[in-house]
């Protein structure tokens, strides 16, 4: 496995042969050294005894606990694990990587694969699984790298993916506007409004106008949008704007004030406060962290 530098982010070249369904590797280490990178393959990554390690997936930055399990998919989803405050002398990492077309469109269209298909679609943002989900597949994960029979190993991976796909506690990590991930299939009205917000995030977005786009009253539309998305309209707009702001902080040299106003925020103090509340870091610190992770090592 090696990395090549393309633009600002490293692209990882996966050791996945044409004759294999998965690339599976188990490592024991004391520190994380890979820089910020991306790859076109899906990746299921399990970490044990990694408390204090900092996980970066798109514009999501979180400190992990003793156990960590995430599923990543999509060529534009940068990710990285930073040593953070972890002092463990034996960090265990199991990585399973596979091509997006391993199952094929025909197989994914079958009823038995419906939940896996939905999960793989969401993985374009990165998915983090709860401790409860991790424990359900732990015994299988624990032995998967040492399994000598390749067909049995294939069945074990399939079992893990299925169990994770039916869990109802997976958390989406990166924002839509940062990850450039395709939005999930939704009603035409919700999709139309989301696309309009995505295209006009820098402008003033009025509830009345958005409701008019789909032929609803403002009150009815607000209720409808929250029921269908789990978020209020204002929360969704802020999330989209923050995603674009995070992308500009990473990919441009524009100053923070410029980014603030270009992303639809009309107050710099409010932008800084909101960004830190949602991303755990102030915009300046967020930019500095990504510059650090992009250094050639």
Task: Give the amount of beta strand, in percent.
Answer: 15-25%
Question: What's the CATH topology label of the largest domain?
Answer: Jelly Rolls
Structural class: alpha+beta
Number of helices: 12
Instruction: Please count the beta strands (DSSP E, at least 2 residues each).
Output: 12
| Helical residues, percent | 40-55%
The unreliable regions are 1-7
Overall mean confidence score, pLDDT: 88
Count of distinct structural domains:
2
Order of strands, widest sheet: 3-10-5-8-11-12
Overall radius of gyration: 20 Å
Biggest sheet features: 6 strands, antiparallel
Question: Can you say what the CATH homologous superfamily of the largest domain is?
Answer: Jelly Rolls
Question: What is the 3D form?
Answer: globular
Question: Any idea what the CATH architecture of the largest domain is?
Answer: Sandwich
Distance from N terminus to C terminus (CA atoms, Å) equals: 15 Å
CATH class of the largest domain: Mainly Beta
Q: Return the string of H and E elements.
A: EEEEEEEEEEHHEHHEHHHHHHHH
Brief descriptors of the model:
alpha+beta, disordered N terminus, 6-stranded antiparallel β-sheet, Arc Repressor Mutant, subunit A, 297 residues, single chain, 3-stranded mixed β-sheet, 2 domains, Jelly Rolls
Question: What would your notes on this structure say?
Answer:
It is a single chain. The protein folds into 2 domains: 175 residues, Jelly Rolls, CATH 2.60.120.10; 108 residues, Arc Repressor Mutant, subunit A (Orthogonal Bundle), CATH 1.10.10. Strand 6 and strand 7 form a beta hairpin. The strands form 3 sheets. Strands 3-10-5-8-11-12 form a 6-stranded antiparallel beta sheet. It is built from 12 helices and 12 strands. By secondary structure, the chain is an alpha+beta fold. The longest helix is centred in the last third of the chain and has 19 residues.
């Amino acid at each position: 496995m090696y990395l090549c530098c393309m633009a600002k982010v490293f692209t990882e070249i996966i050791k996945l042969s044409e004759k294999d369904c998965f690339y599976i590797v188990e490592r024991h280490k004391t520190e994380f050294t890979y820089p910020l990178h991306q790859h076109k393959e899906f990746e299921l990554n399990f970490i044990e005894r990694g408390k204090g390690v900092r996980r970066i997936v798109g514009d999501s930055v979180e400190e992990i606990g003793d156990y960590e399990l995430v599923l990543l998919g999509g060529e534009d989803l940068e990710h990285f694990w930073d040593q953070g405050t972890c002092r463990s002398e034996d960090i265990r990492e199991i990585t399973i990587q596979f091509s997006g077309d391993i199952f094929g469109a025909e197989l994914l269209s079958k009823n038995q694969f419906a939940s896996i298909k939905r999960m793989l679609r969401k993985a374009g943002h990165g998915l983090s699984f709860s401790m409860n989900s991790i424990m359900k597949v732990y015994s299988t994960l624990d032995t998967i790298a040492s399994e000598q029979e390749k067909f049995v190993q294939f069945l074990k991976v399939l079992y893990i993916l299925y169990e994770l796909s039916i869990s109802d506690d997976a958390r989406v990590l990166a924002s839509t506007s940062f990850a450039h991930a395709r939005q999930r299939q939704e009603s035409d009205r919700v999709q139309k409004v989301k696309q309009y917000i995505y295209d006009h995030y820098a402008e003033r977005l009025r509830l009345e106008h958005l409701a008019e786009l789909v032929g609803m009253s403002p009150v009815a539309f607000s209720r409808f949008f929250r029921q269908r998305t789990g978020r209020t309209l204002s929360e969704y707009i802020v999330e989209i704007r923050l995603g674009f702001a995070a992308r500009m902080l990473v990919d441009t040299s524009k100053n923070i004030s410029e980014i603030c106003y270009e992303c639809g925020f009309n107050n710099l103090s409010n932008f800084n406060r909101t960004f830190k509340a949602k991303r755990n870091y102030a915009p300046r610190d967020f930019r500095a962290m990504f510059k650090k992770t992009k250094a050639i090592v």
